[in-house]
Amino acid sequence: MGRLSIPSLPEGPIREFYERLHTLHQVAGQPSMRALHHGTRTATRPRGINATSIHAAFARPRLARWDVVSEIVRLLDGDVGEFAELWQQARHRELSADVPPGTVLGAYPKEVGGSWPADRSGGAVPRELPPDLRTLSGRERQLAELDTVLDAGTEAGMTMIIVLTGPPGVGKTALAVHWAHRVADRFPDGQLYLDLRGYHPVPPTRPTDALAGLLGALGEDAATLPPGLASRAARFRTLLADRRMLVVLDNAGSVDQVRPLLPGTGRCRTVVTSRDSLAGLVARHGVRRLDLDPLAPRAPPFRGGPLGVPPATDEAATPARHPAPPYRPAPIRLAIVAPRPTHGDACGDAPPGRSRRTADRGRKIGRLPGTGDAADRTDGGDLTAAGPPAGPDRRAQRP
Fold first, then answer.
1. Are 134 and 232 in contact (CB under 8 A)?
2. What global pTM score does this model have?
3. 212-270 pLDDT, tens per residue?
4. In DSSP terms, which residues pair with 246 in a beta bridge?
5. pLDDT tens digits, residue range 188-202?
6. Half-sphere exposure (CA, 13 Å, Cβ side) for 7?
7. How far apart, in whole angstroms, are the C-alpha atoms of residue 170 and residue 283?
8. Where does 209-328 show beta strands of DSSP type E?
């Protein structure tokens, strides 16, 4: 990843934070990003923090999340409390450069007892994200890609739209919500969430209704909302013009459903999930699309076989603990379990009312060539034509 260098920043709290962090790294012997990555692996985070995110905490001018910074300081044997204060002051300065004068900024980081910045309209800052999953397994690579896209868009100062696509049930919503919670501190003016119901049994959310909900979350009175789609979209872009917010549009069905809901400034980020590729957004708005594939299932190995065929195992190499049952088709198994007639029943002496010829025919059918009557007493599972014991002949009971 190259040599670590302090970002080009003016004198002030932000530059002081980076200088102290680089000094701590040098005193600790300048461990590599890979070594720091391995050191962040814990029971709750088995894959650790991505090495790219650790490198960004040293080299990019935008402050990294506090959970990343605190882990780096801990691994370098630094004073976490001291760096929390440095990070607080740098974060205040970073936010003050993006908000109008007079805005009351809360203390950072919130993990060490601070509060969120107050909303400019005097109301509560919208925090509409659904509950986060405790862990999200199998999507570490996608989370790292999302972090990279966010950092690249922040440095370029451009409006960034990320589209997560994939088949139903692949985990698009879970990934979007989990990542949004991870980067929530990067958007101090709030996070908006809206389910567009693009593929629900009920009709999808119309863009005008979606904008009504988004404007309401931003403190707009429903009675004073503009009536038309274009006017509501313009009002939405106006309210987001001087804010740094994250907008999550879940389950989008089409490009026309999403386009009116996009912010117009580079400080906001939008994440869209959809089964559709939304090619129109990619072509016109420079969307970054991330296709999700289904995770490989962890199914137990298949040990059976078709009906009547034993599983392919090496019995000589792996002796079975218990004798394997005979693998025969169902009719043969039933024939083996069913009671077999003994010599002298159906194929032996003729019951009352039957002719001797019928009994002799039964003996011939039940006898195997060259074996004599002993075949009738063999329990080998052969399919003979001998049926169940014959009941009393009803013809003999006729008057």
1. no
2. 0.51
3. 999 999 988 888 888 889 999 999 999 998 888 999 999 999 999 999 999 987 788 99
4. 191, 269
5. 889 999 999 998 888
6. 20
7. 25
8. 246-252, 269-274, 288-291
